[in-house]
């Protein structure tokens, strides 16, 4: 199987306890997998490990069959990974919504007009065009989460890691996000407590336990 992500026997511990061990996971190029689990089971930590933000205690991580031994190895794939944190309050780099969504495209060398047009399209698709010129720090938690998602999806990353994308969203926003995520054929790992949301995205669901991932569907 040609995979974007392979995790082999990953374990993780904090300064005070072992959180999980023996996490093994393969995600192929267009596959979406969901991860559920109790509060504190380590779902967010696992996504941070996958994004190269924190190291595991043990185990091996391969991105596109390339072994990641350090943060430096992850740097080569920075443009390929889109990571939505559970808490997006520290995530933004620009003051206004449109500037922030355009930022990643501009950083990739996309011309201003094209970056603006694409960003407007993305805001429209996510139902947040009315927020275009708003200051991000004046937005609600749910609004901030959708803006962060817009900034991630617009760069078309090959691997998309989403930590509770709908935890603060209303029903309409959730439906728009389901539609847009279903239209994206990329590797996706979605962490969520929201069963009906997950089931509309993927049949492949794992539960994170302290001794590994259990496939529950
Ligand atoms: N920076 C940190 N320092 C110490 N312990 C931490 C740190 N970050 C997380 N932990 C601990 O690691 C464990 C796993 O946390 P994590 O946030 O990954 O869980 P989670 O499954 O995402 O939980 P939730 O469903 O509440 O989001 C928890 O016991 C948490 O207290
Ligand atoms: Mg979490």
Textual characterization of the structure:
The structure is a single chain. By secondary structure, the protein is of the alpha/beta class. It has one domain: 3-Layer(aba) Sandwich (Rossmann fold), CATH 3.40.50. The protein is built from 7 helices and 10 strands. The chain has helices spanning 43-50, 71-75, 97-107, 112-125, 141-153, 171-183, 195-199; strands at residues 3-13, 18-28, 32-36, 58-63, 66-68, 81-84, 159-163, 187-191, 205-209, 212-215. It has a 6-stranded mixed β-sheet, sandwiched between helices. Helix 6 links the parallel strand 7 (159-163) and strand 8 (187-191). Helix 3 packs across helix 4 (112-125) and helix 3 runs parallel beside helix 5 (141-153). The two termini are 20 Å apart. The mean pLDDT is 96. The chain binds adenosine-5'-triphosphate and magnesium ion. Residues 14, 19, 37, 39-45, 86 line the site of adenosine-5'-triphosphate.
Which properties best describe this structure?
217 residues, alpha/beta, Rossmann fold, four-stranded antiparallel sheet, 32% helix
CATH top level assignment: Alpha Beta
CATH fold call:
Rossmann fold
Strand content: 25-35%
Overall geometric form: globular
| Weakly predicted, low-confidence segments | none
Strand order within the widest beta sheet: 6-7-8-3-9-10
Main β sheet profile: 6 strands, mixed
CATH structural architecture: 3-Layer(aba) Sandwich
Following the backbone from N to C, one meets helices and strands in this order, namely EEEHEEHEHHHEHEHEE
Q: Share of helix among residues?
A: 25-40%
Pfam families: ABC_tran
Organism: Arcobacter arenosus
GO cellular component, one term: ATP-binding cassette (ABC) transporter complex
GO molecular function, one term: ATP binding
